[in-house]
Amino acid sequence: MKPHRPAQFPAPWRKTTLGLILLALFLSSCAPSSSDRIVIGSKNFTESLMLAELMAELIESRTHLKVERRFYLAGSYICQQAILAGRIDIYPEYTGTALTAILKQKVVGDREQVYQQVKSEYETRFGLTLGPPLGFNNTFAMEIRGEDARRLKLKSLSQAAAFAPQWRAGFGYEFMERPDGYRGLAASYGLRFATPPRIMDLGLLAPALKDHQIDMAAGNATDGLILAFDLSVLEDDRHYFPPYEAVAVIRQPTLQQHPELSQAIDALGGKISDQEMQKLNYALDGEHRDPKDVAHEFLESKGLVP
After folding, report:
1. Neighbouring-strand partners of residue 41
2. What is the pLDDT of residues 176-231, one digit of tens each?
3. Which domains does the chain show, CATH number per domain?
4. Element at 170 (helix H, strand E)
5. Do 272 and 134 contact (CB within 8 A), yes or no?
6. 242, 180 contact by CB (below 8 A)
7. 129-139 as b/e, with b when 16 or more CB fall inside 10 Å?
8. Whole-angstrom distance, CA of residue 236 vs CA of residue 156
């Protein structure tokens, strides 16, 4: 869920080939976990890295296990394949992503029902389980510049749809491809843009929006740059997006071998609010601080580490 140059939208065969090559290289270059070592992965964006570092710090503080960090493993597909292959033991995921992008199922029910559905399916189908929700809901956030929102008096996606034909949009590759992403959103709200959406690395979306290179972006509700760049999040007034509660995905064999992991991971359950996650992200993206320092300070403030 973590980028130097905007990427052009590749042809389908190129996407498939590149993905398979990257996956093969990743899996062939990593050794499986050992009996005294836990491997934590993350996706290739700031929040996933931050969550993975929080989990790593807790495990190091509360157990005698060594933690190996394998961060920036592209998106959900690579992380899912890596954990199924036993190359990583834990990585942070979102319930809505797991349900729609991995399980390919439609959202029915509230946050608790989605969580239980994903947990049950992961245990049955994959030999994986979920830690408790961490407390915040990182739903997709359709962002525009704050100055535009105030000038046009826009608060919701339904209102913004009338102006979209004059705008340029920028989205991440995964948002363009996933079933709960662009195509469904465009159909739900009747969104049409002046040009086809630009496909960009996630870390470039907010700066591109701020610099008027694009006029709407698909970010995350807990993005630390929303406040820093004076961006406005449009309300999903038709409730298109499912809940995206952050959870740890954990290999069940790893938990069976190291039951002490449960206590360490469970300690983070319900501890991070939307606002706190936004501040953690900003500490990395806006202040360029070391993730280890930020993670330790946060866990210390919650009384979770000495």
Report:
1. 70
2. 988 889 999 999 999 999 999 999 988 899 999 999 999 999 998 999 899 889 99
3. 23-137+244-301 (3.40.190.10), 140-234 (3.40.190.120)
4. strand 169-171
5. yes
6. yes
7. bbbbbbbbbbb
8. 6
**Phi-psi region for residue 109, left (φ > 0), alpha (ψ -120 to 50) or beta?**
left
Long-range contacts of 159-162 (CB under 8 A, 24+ apart): 159/234, 160/216, 160/234, 161/189, 161/190, 161/191
| First-to-final CA distance of the chain | 29
Average pLDDT over residues 233-261: 95
129 — phi, psi (to 5°)? -135, 170
250 and 89 Cβ atoms separated by less than 8 Å: yes
Alpha-carbon span 97 to 93, nearest angstrom: 7
DSSP 8-state assignment for residue 101: I
pLDDT score of 5 more than 50: no
Residue 150: count of CB within 10 angstroms of its CB: 11
B/e letters for 71-90, b = 16+ CB within 10 Å, e = fewer, are bbbbbbbbbbbbbeebbbbb
How many Å separate Cα 245 from the centre of its chain? 10
Q: What are the phi and psi torsion angles at 297 (to 5°)? A: -60, -40
Q: Which helix (H) or strand (E) holds 66?
A: strand 66-70
Six-digit token string for 74: 């592209």
Q: 3-state DSSP helix/strand/coil percent for the chain, to nearest 5?
A: 45, 15, 35
Answer whether 151's CB lies under 8 Å from 285's CB: no
